């Protein structure tokens, strides 16, 4: 992830600066530090840091359940929601302790508890917020394929003899934690 000047320097400084101004990155940073926002009609770059909500400490919440919002929590939550909106699977990878499970659980909880968009139906709205039912499946060394199948079938409605699915106008997401265990 090199900075933009390394490859644009050969084009000339004027071209480089004009491109950064055009892209909205003249303030500096990497392209990975920005997201594309299209709310005003024209796409523009916005820093991920601008979308980080402030942290409010609540004494009643146990320490292990607190999530301090950071650029990474905002970024990964956005990517998770964007992939789920278009019905794509998501796989977050990383070393132990970086917060993959915590970020995913918090994002799925937020999407599950979000209000259903007004006037939305399964056909005219692809937004998953408010229509999501999230279930967490934790694998261990003793988890078998039949255990996984039975657990998933128990969380879904029986549609026909051997067909299972989500309730009407809902989507079910299974968050499988530690997928490499069995």
Could you provide a short overview of the structure?
With 182 residues, the chain is of the alpha+beta class. The protein is built from 5 helices and 6 strands.
Task: Report on this structure.
The chain is of the alpha+beta class. It is 30% helix and 14% strand. The protein has a two-stranded antiparallel sheet with strand order 1-2. Strands 3-6 form a two-stranded parallel ribbon. The radius of gyration is 21 Å and the shape is globular. About 3% of the residues have low confidence.
Provide keyphrases for this structure.
alpha+beta; globular; 182 residues; 14% strand; 5 helices; single chain
Going across the biggest sheet, name each strand in turn.
1-2
Helical percentage: 25-40%
Proportion of strand residues: 5-15%
Following the backbone from N to C, one meets helices and strands in this order, namely HHEEHHEHEEE
* Uncertain ranges: 121-125
Number of strands: 6
Q: What is the CA-atom radius of gyration, in angstroms?
A: 21 Å
Q: How many angstroms does the end-to-end distance come to?
A: 34 Å
The major beta sheet can be summarized as: 2 strands, antiparallel
Overall spatial form: globular
Quick check: average pLDDT? 78
Class from secondary-structure proportions: alpha+beta
H/I helix tally:
5
């Amino acid at each position: 992830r090199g900075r933009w000047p390394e490859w644009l320097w050969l084009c000339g400084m004027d071209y480089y600066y004009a491109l950064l101004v055009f892209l909205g990155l003249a303030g500096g940073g990497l392209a990975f530090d920005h997201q594309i926002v299209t709310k005003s009609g024209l796409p523009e770059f916005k820093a991920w840091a601008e979308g980080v909500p402030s942290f409010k400490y609540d004494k009643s919440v146990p320490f292990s359940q607190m999530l301090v919002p950071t650029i990474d929590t905002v970024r990964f939550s956005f990517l998770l929601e964007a992939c789920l909106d278009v019905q794509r699977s998501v796989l977050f990878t990383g070393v132990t302790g970086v917060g993959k499970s915590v970020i995913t659980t918090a994002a799925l909880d937020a999407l599950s508890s979000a209000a259903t968009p007004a006037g939305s139906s399964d056909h005219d709205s692809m937004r998953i917020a408010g229509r999501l039912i999230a279930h967490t499946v934790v694998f261990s060394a003793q988890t078998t394929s039949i255990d996984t199948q039975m657990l998933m079938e128990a969380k879904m409605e029986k549609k026909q003899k051997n067909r299972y699915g989500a309730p009407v106008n809902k989507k079910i997401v299974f968050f499988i934690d530690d997928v490499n265990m069995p």
